């Protein structure tokens, strides 16, 4: 009698474990592509958000670590634009008030007219290049948001590509440190 109860309990347990995975798979007829498409960010929206406010597209893509990099780059470029423009204005004013007949009245007594002209050109060129680089940073922000949104699909497949450190034996040489690359395709 005990063997019979044990046998019935064993079959009931096995059927229970077999039944639940089947029921979990049968619950709804939902297309996996539809679920994946709903979770992926729209690249056009990400680009638009980044164009409206730099870093907003990265926040939309949930790449929050990129936002401080964008603003640190913008702050650095902004500071050097200000600094070069300030020096440009000083030397330009010094060049406008330069009087070769009265060296004591000059703003920069150690510089002649050619030296002042060189400095004016130098700081103006640096300021203008930094303004151009600020524009490139703005465009890079927009492109990064769009590309990151396009590549979000690959983040869903983290298990496809695996990289692990390994000890490699190549030929008759000593074992060397290396990296193994593995693809897991289902």
Structural summary, described in words:
With 186 residues, the chain is mainly alpha-helical. It has one domain. It is 65% helix and 9% strand. It has seven helices and two strands, in the order H-H-H-H-H-H-H-E-E. The protein has helices spanning 2-26, 32-39, 43-52, 56-60, 66-96, 113-150, 152-155; strands spanning 161-168, 176-183. Strands 1-2 form a two-stranded antiparallel ribbon. Helix 3 runs antiparallel to helix 6 (113-150) and helix 5 (66-96) runs antiparallel to helix 6.
Features:
mainly alpha, two-stranded antiparallel ribbon
Describe the structure in brief.
The chain is mainly α and about 190 residues long.
């Amino acid at each position: 009698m005990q063997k019979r109860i044990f046998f019935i309990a064993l079959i009931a347990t096995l059927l229970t474990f077999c039944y639940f995975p089947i029921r979990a798979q049968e619950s709804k007829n939902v297309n996996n592509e539809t679920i994946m498409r709903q979770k992926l960010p729209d690249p056009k929206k990400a680009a638009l958000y980044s164009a409206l406010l730099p870093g907003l597209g990265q926040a939309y893509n949930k790449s929050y670590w990129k936002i401080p990099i964008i603003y640190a780059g913008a702050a650095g470029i902004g500071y050097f634009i200000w600094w070069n423009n300030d020096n440009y204005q000083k030397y330009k004013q010094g060049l406008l008030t330069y009087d070769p007949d009265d060296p004591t009245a000059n703003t920069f007594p150690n510089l002649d007219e050619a030296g002042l002209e060189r400095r004016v050109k130098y700081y103006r060129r640096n300021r203008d290049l930094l303004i151009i680089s600020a524009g490139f940073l703005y465009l890079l922000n927009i492109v990064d948001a769009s590309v990151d949104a396009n590549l979000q699909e690959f983040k869903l497949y983290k298990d496809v590509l695996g990289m692990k450190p390994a000890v490699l034996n190549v030929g008759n040489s000593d074992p060397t440190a290396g990296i193994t690359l593995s693809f897991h395709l289902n």
